[in-house]
Amino acid sequence: MAEKSLTLVTKFLLMAFIDCPEWALLPFLLFLFIYLITPLGNLGMIILIRVDLQLHTPTYFLLSHLSFMDICYSFVTVPLMMAVLLEHRAALSYTLCAAQFFLFTFFGSIDCYLLALMAYDHYVAMCRPLLYVTIMRRKARLGFVCVCVGGAYVAGVFSALVWKVSAFTLSFCGTNEIDFILCELPPLLKITCGDSYTQEVVIIVFAIFVIPACMVVIFVSYLLIILAIMRIPSAGGQAKTFWTCASHLTAVSLFFGTLIFMYLRDNSGQSSEEDWVVSVFYITVIPLSKPLIYSLRNKEVKEALRKILNRARLS
């Protein structure tokens, strides 16, 4: 049965609002708005970091790559979501579904690694200032961030390959219809058949490796930061120091909270509506929110933006 199903499934049919097509217009317009705004916000963050010398630090170098990943993430996912909503269904070849799944997990994995690296960067800056001064020297800084970012990209490729190979060596049978707007892991697992134990174990183990491992780095980094902050004598100094981490903590909470809900849970018996809400949140809202989080809650970014606006007004 499994072998037969694998030969028969040459495409997947993504579906949305089949029973209530009139409900699709509002989400389509919302996704279109987000699709237009998200690249502008993240591209603006990249340009701001590039042109302002005060932002030429490891933290903002990592943030610029995080913004670039969010732009790519949006380009890979949102157009397909809008096509499904507009037509209420979209046929996707097996190869194209696998490619979209690979890119989706690739950019998402790199986001995990970059957020973990940013937490470690905050730890070094606050708890090991002498080491940070050494890293901040131009040549050392360039080597450090290139190695870190390069490692994140390599790990992202490896993570995406493992997930893609594991997911698309599963047997699909019964139907190729997916009541979802993307080739995503939870809805794909719902149409599998045959013996998929090995692949599902690999997927779960690797999810446990990627998501909690990054969370452990973030947790330990912030635990050490909090201990360092508690040694500051004044309450004002403690608040000021912790406030520098507020934007990163907000982004981490939003990103990892949704990933945990999607991947580190039992998908059997879960409703498509739950998958819909959470997927839409982390695919569209989180990439849109990061520029806002890092601009509205970050004093250095706001100052850099103010200087550029003043220059533009004077010229």
Automatic annotation (TrEMBL):
Entry superkingdom: Eukaryota
Ranges that cross the membrane: 23-48, 60-86, 98-120, 141-163, 201-229, 241-264, 276-296
Subcellular compartments: Membrane
N-terminal signal peptide: none
InterPro entries listed in its UniProt record: GPCR_Rhodpsn (IPR000276), GPCR_Rhodpsn_7TM (IPR017452), Olfact_rcpt (IPR000725)
Keywords: G-protein coupled receptor, Membrane, Receptor, Transducer, Transmembrane, Transmembrane helix
SUPFAM superfamilies: Family A G protein-coupled receptor-like (SSF81321)
Boundaries of every G-protein coupled receptors family 1 profile domain copy: 41-294
An example molecular function term from Gene Ontology annotations: G protein-coupled receptor activity
Record membrane topology: Multi-pass membrane protein
One cellular component (GO) term of this entry: membrane
Role, per record: Putative odorant or sperm cell receptor.
Protein name in UniProt: Olfactory receptor 9Q1-like
